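Long-time lurker, first post. I've been practising inverse folding by hand and with some scripts of my own, and I keep getting stuck on stretches where the C-alpha cells seem ambiguous. Below is the full C-alpha cell string for one chain I'm working on. Before anyone asks, I'm not after the true native sequence, just a reasonable design that respects the backbone. If someone could post their per-position residues I'd love to compare against what I wrote down in my notebook.
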C-alpha cells in the first residue's frame, strides 16, 4: 500500500534455510480456496490448508498466545521478551490509576450492560465519556461505539447513500473499506497521501463526497498531509473524515491527534478514534458537529444492534483521558522513544520507509525472509508483528514495530542490538 522505494540488501550467499521440496512461500501466502462444485458450502474449508502447512514448517507467525503482557515487556512460551509489537503507545493498560478506576467500575456496574445504547445499555458514565472526548478534541459532540471497527462501519454506512460517494485513500484501514461496502453509495480511491490525485477524482464526480483518510497509517507509520487534503475538500465542498485511531494520544497538542498536529482542527469535519491504542481500553468513537452525530447515533446499525461498551472499558478510557490531561509530558516521552528507535534502526542499515511516528515498519520485501526474521527475533527476545500479503502488497513484506512511552533507553538499545545481530545473520542488512 505504500509507494516508497525499497532497497533489498541481500548477500550473495543466502543464509536462510531452504524451504523443503522447493515450495514457494508466495504459493503459501496466496493460497487459493475457491471451493468445489459439489454444492457443499464447507468445500472451501477443506481446500484451505495454508495454516496447517505453515505450522508444519514452523512458519506460522499469528495467534501466538502471550502468557502475560506488562507493557514494554511480555511473557510468551515461558520466556520474557521486549514488546515492540503493541499499540499500547502510552503504556496505560498497566497504569495504577487506570486499573483502579476500572476495578471500581466493575464493582459498581458489573461486567456488562447486556444491551445496546439505544435500549438498556446507556449509563451516565457513557455520556460522561462522550462529553470528555468532545471537550478534549474541541468539537461539539461525540458518540461512542463498542469497537473502533464498528465505529467506521456505522459512520460510513449511515452517511454515504445512493446520492453520494466515499473517496478513500488507498491505504486506509480495512474497517473503512468494509464500511463503504455496507453503504448504498459508490466508493472511489485515490493514491496514498496524494492530494493532487484526490483533486482529480473530486473534479470528476458530481455527487456529494465524503473523503476518508487515516491520520496515521497503521502499517507505514506515516502521517496524512491534512492541510493539503483539507484544502482540496474545501475546494470541492467535500466532507473530510479522519480515522485517527493511531493519532489520538500520539500526535498533536497533549495527544489531541493529527488535526491538532497540523493545526487544522477547524478543517476536519469528523474524527473517528479508538480507545484500544493509546487510551488503554477498547471501543471507538466519532466526534464532530452535534446534528451529524445525532443522525449517526440514531441510524448506525453497528451501534443500534450491538451491546454497548462494558463499564470496565468505559472507565478505563475515562481514566486514560485523566492521565493524558494531567500528565501531557507522557506524549513527549513517547516521541523521544520513537525517535531513538527510528534513528537507531536507520543507522544500522534498516529501511523504515517514511515513518515519523511510533509505528516503525522494517521493510524487508521477501515474504519468507520476513517471516523467518520475525521468528528469529522472537527467539532472541524481541516481539514484533509480521505483515505479509494481503496486509501489504506482495513483495513488500514488513516487520511492523511500535514504541511505547514506557520503553526505557536501555530497552530500546537492547532491542536495536538484537535487530542488528539477527538482521545481519539472516541477510536483512549487510
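-- Answer (accepted) --
I ran through it position by position. Result:
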Amino acid at each position: 500500500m505504500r509507494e516508497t522505494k525499497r532497497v533489498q540488501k541481500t548477500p550473495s550467499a543466502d543464509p536462510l534455510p531452504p524451504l523443503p521440496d522447493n515450495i514457494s512461500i508466495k504459493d503459501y501466502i496466496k493460497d487459493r480456496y475457491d471451493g468445489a462444485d459439489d454444492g457443499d458450502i464447507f468445500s472451501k474449508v477443506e481446500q484451505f490448508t495454508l495454516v496447517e502447512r505453515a505450522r508444519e514448517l514452523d512458519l506460522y507467525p499469528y495467534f501466538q498466545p502471550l502468557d502475560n503482557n506488562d507493557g514494554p515487556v511480555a511473557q510468551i512460551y515461558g520466556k520474557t521478551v521486549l514488546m515492540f509489537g503493541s499499540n499500547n503507545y502510552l503504556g496505560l493498560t498497566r497504569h495504577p490509576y487506570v486499573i483502579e478506576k476500572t476495578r471500581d467500575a466493575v464493582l459498581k456496574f458489573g461486567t456488562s450492560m447486556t444491551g445496546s445504547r439505544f435500549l438498556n445499555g446507556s449509563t451516565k458514565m457513557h455520556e460522561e465519556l462522550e462529553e470528555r472526548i468532545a471537550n478534549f478534541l474541541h468539537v461539539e459532540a461525540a458518540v461512542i461505539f463498542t469497537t473502533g471497527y464498528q465505529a467506521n462501519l456505522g459512520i460510513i454506512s449511515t452517511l454515504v447513500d445512493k446520492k453520494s460517494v466515499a473517496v478513500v485513500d488507498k491505504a486506509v484501514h480495512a474497517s473503512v473499506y468494509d464500511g463503504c461496502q455496507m453503504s448504498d453509495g459508490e466508493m472511489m480511491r485515490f493514491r496514498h497521501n496524494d492530494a493532487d490525485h484526490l483533486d482529480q477524482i473530486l473534479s470528476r464526480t458530481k455527487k456529494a463526497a465524503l473523503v476518508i483518510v487515516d491520520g496515521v497509517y497503521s502499517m507505514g507509520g506515516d502521517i496524512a498531509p491534512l492541510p493539503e487534503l483539507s484544502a482540496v475538500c474545501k475546494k470541492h465542498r467535500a466532507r473530510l473524515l479522519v480515522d485517527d485511531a493511531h493519532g489520538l494520544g500520539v500526535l498533536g497538542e497533549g495527544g489531541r491527534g493529527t488535526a491538532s498536529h497540523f493545526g487544522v482542527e477547524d478543517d476536519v469535519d469528523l474524527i473517528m478514534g479508538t480507545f484500544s491504542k493509546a487510551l488503554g481500553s477498547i471501543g471507538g468513537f466519532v466526534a464532530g458537529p452535534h446534528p451529524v452525530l445525532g443522525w449517526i447515533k440514531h441510524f448506525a446499525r453497528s451501534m443500534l444492534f450491538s451491546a454497548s461498551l462494558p463499564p470496565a472499558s468505559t472507565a478505563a478510557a475515562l481514566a486514560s483521558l485523566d492521565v493524558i490531561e494531567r500528565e501531557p509530558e507522557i506524549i513527549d516521552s513517547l516521541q523521544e522513544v520513537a525517535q531513538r528507535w527510528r534513528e537507531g534502526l536507520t543507522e544500522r542499515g534498516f529501511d523504515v520507509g517514511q515513518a515519523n511516528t511510533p509505528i516503525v515498519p522494517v521493510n524487508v520485501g521477501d515474504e519468507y525472509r520476513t517471516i523467518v526474521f520475525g521468528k528469529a527475533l522472537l527467539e532472541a527476545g524481541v516481539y514484533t508483528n509480521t505483515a505479509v500479503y494481503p496486509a501489504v502488497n506482495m513483495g513488500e513484506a514488513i516487520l511492523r514495530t511500535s514504541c511505547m512511552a514506557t520503553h526505557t533507553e536501555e530497552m530500546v538499545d537492547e532491542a536495536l542490538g538484537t535487530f542488528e545481530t539477527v538482521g545481519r545473520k539472516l541477510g536483512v542488512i549487510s
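A couple of notes from the structure itself: The first strand starts at residue 66 and ends at 69. Residues 218 and 335 are 16 Å apart (CA to CA). Happy to go over any region you disagree with.
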